Amino acid sequence: MPRLAPLAETADTRLTEGDKGLPPRAAGLTVREFLDTAPRLGEFWTPLLALDRAALEHNAGTIQQWCDERGLELMPHGKTTMAPALWRLQLDGGATGLTLATPGQVRTARGFGVGTIMLANALVAPDALAWVAAELADPAFEFWSWADSLETVEAMERGLAAASDANGAPALGRPLAVLVELGAGGGRTGARGLDEALVIARRIADSPVLRLAGVAGYEGSLGHDRSSVAIAAVRDYLADLVELHGAVRTLADPAAGPLIVTAGGSAYLDLVADVFAPEIEAGAGRGDTRWVLRSGASLVHDDGFYRGISPIHRELTPAMRGYARVVSHPEPGLALLDGGKRDLPYDEGLPVPLAVASALGAEGRPLDEASVTAVNDQHAYLRGEAGAALPVAIGDVVALGLSHPCTAFDKWRWIPVVEHAGSDLVVDLVHTRF
């Protein structure tokens, strides 16, 4: 099982008074010095986001094994957490690379030594193209970008043509690997149909500065549940992606190495594996294609959206919890908590009250007949079911299950990590890089 360890790059970083949630005594200490004091969760201030080390390690091992058993590479989407310590957990556990969403995120990952990166987006900014061109001077660096139109290809060519090194010589040491992105009507980005995608593929194959390296797509925008309609739409789309791969194989240079076929968020990964399976089996001896899953939320999982839609939710454990304190009890059936939109995710479901305790880190009692019905910037509305009285008092701390890790981490610079569920010993501080 992969293990989460404090990241050497942040061990000597000094904590400050401005670091949200940390206890006052942490200010001025390095991360290493603070952790050496064996801090307890009860010292931290609310509102707070905390992580569970045992759950993170379990989930990292679970999703990696799931991919290995199906012949899939895992390049998890790093934008979910933007936390290098969590990237390293999965890379050390067998992930072959990292997926990212913006050039700035790519630059951050390179700064932490990540050597295999997929940009699940088009790379068209001239400055970013120049930077990537310089990075490609490192022969060990693997990098792919996506393109979904001829205009995208032309913008990439212009940016690379303008890129030069300090002496004015062309900076691009080798062609930039590009995946043709297939979309679908009503979806997000991506060429709208196989014919359009093939035109783009031919154009990339003819480019002097780009290399046709495979096909890519995102099926998650085609459904938001496990209904038969959503599943059919996702399956049809993935079948088209496989068909596009077959056509691209005839255009790409076989001497340039294996092609990439990539799909898969964390909602429909079972369908990705199922549709890809016959092609993976048929090509097992050829080694001409790498089949890549990009699931990012599976590492943290949640108590909301992904718990409801993930096909492997029973095998994963929610690894994040929110904590907020009761600061007002204006009516019998209403309490206001001190955590809101600036602290906790709310875009894919509101926080779910799990337990209430007299203090942060103390043993809690279940809070079953209550729900969070709304959030403001710094408040959450906790209401009793059907107007029932709430068994909470001013100063109590409510533990909250959260939904959608992708919008949880961006609100925090340092996130305490406890040993396991039920423990209040803080064993790490995860540093985000948003």
TrEMBL record:
<dbReference type="Pfam" id="PF01168">
    <property type="entry name" value="Ala_racemase_N"/>
</dbReference>
<dbReference type="InterPro" id="IPR029066">
    <property type="entry name" value="PLP-binding_barrel"/>
</dbReference>
<protein>
    <submittedName>
        <fullName>Alanine racemase</fullName>
        <ecNumber>5.1.1.1</ecNumber>
    </submittedName>
</protein>
<dbReference type="InterPro" id="IPR026956">
    <property type="entry name" value="D-ser_dehydrat-like_dom"/>
</dbReference>
<feature type="compositionally biased region" description="Basic and acidic residues">
    <location>
        <begin position="11"/>
        <end position="22"/>
    </location>
</feature>
<dbReference type="Pfam" id="PF14031">
    <property type="entry name" value="D-ser_dehydrat"/>
</dbReference>
<feature type="domain" description="D-serine dehydratase-like">
    <location>
        <begin position="319"/>
        <end position="419"/>
    </location>
</feature>
<keyword id="KW-0456">Lyase</keyword>
<feature type="region of interest" description="Disordered">
    <location>
        <begin position="1"/>
        <end position="23"/>
    </location>
</feature>
<keyword id="KW-0413">Isomerase</keyword>
<dbReference type="InterPro" id="IPR051466">
    <property type="entry name" value="D-amino_acid_metab_enzyme"/>
</dbReference>
<comment type="similarity">
    <text>Belongs to the DSD1 family.</text>
</comment>
<dbReference type="InterPro" id="IPR042208">
    <property type="entry name" value="D-ser_dehydrat-like_sf"/>
</dbReference>
<dbReference type="GO" id="GO:0008784">
    <property type="term" value="F:alanine racemase activity"/>
</dbReference>
<dbReference type="InterPro" id="IPR001608">
    <property type="entry name" value="Ala_racemase_N"/>
</dbReference>
